[in-house]
Amino acid sequence: MVNKWIDFLQFKLFPPTCILCGAPGLSDLDICRECLDGLALNSSCCSRCAIPLPNSQAGSGDVCGSCLKSAPKFDSCFSPFIYEGAVADLISGLKFSAQLQSGRLLASLMRREIEGSRIKLPDIIIPIPLHSRRLRERGYNQSLELGRHLARRLQLPLDRRSCVRTRITEAQSSLPKNKRIKNVRGAFALRRKIHAGHVVLLDDVVTTGSTVNELAGVLKKSGVEQVSVWSIARTP
């Protein structure tokens, strides 16, 4: 109830304005109707890893060839948008230019898609951790910024301390697919046992899934029964 009043007062005092074009925003969103309708939805995708599939190949419960050949360690992935156009601009602005207002908008859009899809909510949300050196360089963790807003809006616990990145890794975006798995192998550890049956790993974008897959494996080995992945977007 308190959070709802805070949001109400915030948007009464500072009416929403579209981050992308400057037009008046929709309701409590910093995005206008035209820009919102232009975002690329990931509506036809693999039911396991959320990679976009051609409409002709996608159906309810369809799984992509990669997941059929080698199932990921996480149980499901929910990525409501495709990483292109305005979605990619918003994520890049949050991740590399400290445009934290984009994080608030993306979390709000994520919440709308989660509630609209009626997917099962987890016991806790764990943002993908950054290595301490990378965190000092950037000054913030974009996944944690998303997690703060999303957890508050969904009224879910946010766990930012149990999982750590034990070594610094190269940026996954700079590596070819065949080197990404090796790059994050052994890069995560638990500082304490997680007492939750269903955990969601939250990231800004999933590309090959190597990072979330590695951390999902650590959680599964520790006794977590179900690990889901949520990300704002999935690359084609």
Describe the protein.
The chain is an alpha/beta fold. 40% of the residues lie in helices and 14% in strands. It is built from nine helices and seven strands. The protein has helices at residues 2-13, 33-37, 65-69, 85-97, 100-117, 132-138, 142-154, 177-184, 210-222, and strands spanning 76-78, 81-82, 124-127, 163-165, 188-190, 198-206, 226-234. Strands 1, 2, 3, 6 and 7 form a five-stranded parallel β-sheet that branches. The radius of gyration is 18 Å and the shape is globular.
What would a concise description of this structure say?
With 236 residues, this protein is of the alpha/beta class. It has helices at residues 2-13, 33-37, 65-69, 85-97, 100-117, 132-138, 142-154, 177-184, 210-222; strands at residues 76-78, 81-82, 124-127, 163-165, 188-190, 198-206, 226-234.
Envelope shape? globular
State the helical fraction.
25-40%
Largest sheet: 5 strands, parallel
Q: Report strand %.
A: 5-15%
Derived from helix and strand composition plus strand pairing, the structural class reads alpha/beta
